[in-house]
UniProtKB/TrEMBL annotation, chain A:
TM ranges: none
GO molecular function: protein phosphatase regulator activity
Highest rank taxon of the organism: Eukaryota
Keywords: Repeat, WD repeat
Family matches, as PANTHER family: PROTEIN PHOSPHATASE PP2A REGULATORY SUBUNIT B
GO CC term, one of those recorded: protein phosphatase type 2A complex
Descriptive protein name: Serine/threonine-protein phosphatase 2A 55 kDa regulatory subunit B
Primary gene name: Ppp2r2d
SUPFAM superfamilies: WD40 repeat-like
TrEMBL record, chain B:
GO molecular function terms listed in the Swiss-Prot or TrEMBL record: protein phosphatase inhibitor activity
Key words, A-Z: Cell cycle, Cell division, Cytoplasm, Mitosis, Phosphoprotein, Protein phosphatase inhibitor
Protein name: ARP19 protein
Domain of life of the organism encoding this protein: Eukaryota
Gene assigned in the entry: Arpp19
InterPro entries, sorted: Endosulphine
Length: 420, 98
């Protein structure tokens, strides 16, 4: 199985999509309520698998274009079919996933096994009838949005108008209409005239969940810009600029690298946004630009390991973060297959592990603890024993229930709240 | 115990370690070098022939590991798509789910 590169629940939470490094999308569906198996509600089974992107080669630049799926975003469901957007570095595709559970039988011109009947032999006409068949789930590409990004796409975000969406690469953000593939509008362009003057890149972007004219984008320098599309066609000038002031005396070689924001997510209620940088998660009130309202340390013990993390490139790992449905808890991943949850009201934090050994079916996860110095207690793990190859970069939270999906390299874990 | 002014933060200590190992590391910390490397992510090949050769080489290398039971396709004839082992099935749901 391939390395999972993105995980996303749909709006109802009944479907969970994963994208992988091999360009494949696997969709899981929640088991329906089943009286004979009361515990089966809450299980997710494979619903559909399809190849979304293939590796390509850019002949002009002699560059390989990876088929890895960077992001998947669902569209809200408007009819029996499901739609999602999936993107690699260069091309976004709109996929339609539909069910077929009936088949027409009794054709006039062909037999049941498909062989053509000789028209001369047909003496009477019959009307084909629909008969039930085993459920078949088909995925078909409905739109291909290509050739709009010179740099690598890091984000896509569906607008609350359900008609447009944005795609962001390192230097530009484009606005698309879901129906139109041959045109997109550039709404942010931070490419300097002279590339030697390049100082920051766009790392993530998202539309506001209710205000269809507002979006934010984060940068490699730890800043977030909020833009209003009503103010001008090209939103190079931000409406709000979010940055936490830095103590100049604590600045080091690593400061800018670890301040780079790897993910930005609006809260469901649209009043807050959350940013993830290398060592922490910050919650910002959209009405306050000069500092975050909450800061949570994910793995502060790594601050004394930055040198080796720089050497093995782990310092550039891009962790994502997510809100629960009520915006009361936030979750993000760490190393050693650990992931962290922070309860905003109580400030309680938990560290859990996603691994085969610690996750037997229906077993309750034991909280984990990293020993930062001195004597290591039993059951604690020391910083030097952490496996930095086991990183949890992608997590997702069910939109309404306490169900979480955690991607640990090439394994997907699904956890739920204790059922009494 | 009082903290002395000269106590170095863990971050600065790591910085000193890094500078000791790589004295020529750029003056501009986290600046254009990183960004330019980031913008050029993606393996560059000399030309498309080079790319196709590398892809073919990758496929041949994978054959012994992927399908030890099946007849290996190497050497005396050019492999065709039918000869290559089937792609492994995709993710299955975690055992927690089933």
């Amino acid at each position: 199985a391939d390395i999972i590169s993105t995980v996303e629940f749909n709006y109802s939470g009944d479907l969970l999509a994963t994208g992988d490094k091999g360009g494949r999308v696997v969709i899981f569906q929640r088991e329906q309520e089943n009286k004979s198996r009361p515990l089966s509600r809450g299980e997710y089974n494979v619903y559909s698998t399809f190849q979304s992107h293939e590796p390509e080669f850019d002949y002009l630049k002699s560059l390989e274009i990876e088929e890895k799926i960077n992001k998947i975003r669902w569209l809200p469901q408007q009819n029996a079919a499901h739609f999602l957007l999936s993107t690699n570095d260069k091309t976004i595709k709109l996929w339609k996933i539909s069910e077929r559970d009936k088949r027409a039988e009794g054709y006039n011109l062909k037999d049941e096994d498909g062989r053509l009947r000789d028209p001369v032999r047909i003496k009477e006409l019959r009307v084909p009838t629909l008969k039930p068949m085993d459920l078949m789930v088909e995925a078909s590409p409905r739109r291909i949005f290509a050739n709009a990004h010179t740099y690598h796409i890091n984000s896509i975000s569906v607008n609350s108008d359900y008609a447009t969406y944005l795609s962001a690469d390192d230097l530009r953000i484009n606005l698309w209409h879901l129906e139109v593939t041959n045109r997109s509008f550039n709404i942010v362009d931070i490419k300097p005239a002279n590339m030697e003057e390049l100082t920051e890149v766009i790392t993530a972007a998202e539309f506001h969940p209710q205000q269809c004219n507002v979006f934010v984008y984060s940068s490699s320098k730890g800043t977030i810009r909020l833009c209003d599309m009503r103010s001008s066609a090209l939103c190079d000038r931000h409406s709000k600029f979010f940055e936490e002031p830095e103590d100049p005396s604590s600045r080091s070689f690593f400061s800018e690298i670890i301040s780079s924001i790897s993910d930005v997510k609006f809260s469901h209620n649209g009043r807050y946004m959350m940013t993830r940088d290398y060592l922490s998660v910050k919650v910002w009130d959209l009405n306050m630009e000069n500092r975050p309202v909450e800061t949570y340390q994910v793995h502060e013990y790594l601050r004394s390991k930055l040198c080796s993390l720089y050497e093995n490139d782990c310092i550039f790992d891009k962790f994502e973060c997510c809100w629960n449905g009520l915006d009361s808890t936030i979750m993000t991943g760490s190393y050693n297959n650990f992931f962290r949850m922070f309860e905003r009201n109580t400030r309680r934090d938990t560290t859990l592990e996603a691994s085969r050994e610690s996750s037997k079916s229906r077993a309750i996860l034991k909280p984990r603890k990293v020993c930062t110095g001195g004597k290591r207690k039993k059951d604690e793990i020391s910083v030097d024993s952490l496996d930095f190859n086991k990183k949890i970069l992608h997590t997702a939270w069910h939109p309404t229930e306490n169900f979480i999906a955690v991607a640990a390299t090439n394994n997907l874990y699904l956890f739920q709240d204790k059922v009494n | 115990q009082e903290m002395e002014d000269k106590v170095i933060s863990p971050e600065k200590a790591e910085e000193a370690k890094l500078k000791a190992r790589y004295p020529h590391l750029g003056q501009k910390p986290g600046g254009s070098d990183f960004l330019r490397k980031r913008l050029q992510k993606g393996q560059k090949y000399f030309d498309s022939g080079d790319y196709n050769m590398a892809k073919a080489k990758m496929k041949n290398k994978q054959l012994p590991a992927a399908a030890p039971d099946k007849t290996e396709v190497t050497g005396d004839h050019i492999p065709t798509p039918q000869d290559l082992p089937q792609r492994k099935p995709s993710l299955v749901a975690s055992k927690l789910a089933g």
